[in-house]
Amino acid sequence: MLKSCFQNKFIEAGCDEAGRGCLAGPVYAAAVILPKNYKNKTLNDSKQLSEKKRLILRQEIEKDAIAYALGIVDNYEIDKINILNASFLAMHRAIENLSKKPELLLIDGNRFKPYPSIPHECIIKGDGKFLSIAAASILAKTYRDEFMEEYHNKYPVYNWNKNKGYPTKVHRDAIKAHGSTEIHRKSFRLLPEQLELKF
Question: What is the pLDDT of residues 17-44, one digit of tens each?
Fold first, then answer.
C-alpha cells in the first residue's frame, strides 16, 4: 500500500499532471490534501489502474479529501510557454484553487518551479509511492480524459476517445489526412520528420 504522508508535522498536498506527452488538448494538474493517516488499499498511480477503477476512485477521493482542486493550461498557452512550464503552471493553478492552504507540496517528478511561500519535495515516481500524489494523478487523468472524449464527438477521425490525444499511429494518420484542429499543439512535432517532408 502507498504511504499516507511524507511527514507528520505539516499539511501536505500531493500534486501531479496529465497530458504532457499529448499532441492535442490541454495539460491538466490536480492538487489533493488527504486526511492524516488516510488509508485506501486500491488507490495507486493512475497508469496502473483501469478506466473504470479510476472513475470509482475519483468519487472516493472527492468524498474523502480535505481539499482538492484542478489547474488547466490550454494548448495555446502550451505553445507560448512550452510544455514543461505549462505543467508547472497547471500545478500552480491547482494549488491556488485549493480551499485549504497546504504547508508542504509533494510533487510527482524530478523538477518543479517553486510555488510562492510553500516548500516542496520532488518525488520521482511519487504517484506510486504516496497516496496524495496518486489521488492527484487520478483526478488530473480522469478530468483530462473527459475533455478529450468531448472533443472526440466533434472530431471523431482522431480517435481521441481511445488515444486521449497521445501520438498513436491512428492519431498521426488522421493528422496526415485531415490536418490539425484548434486544440492541437502547434509547437509539437505533430508528424515524424519523414512525413513532414512530403507536404
Answer: 999 999 999 999 999 999 999 999 999 9
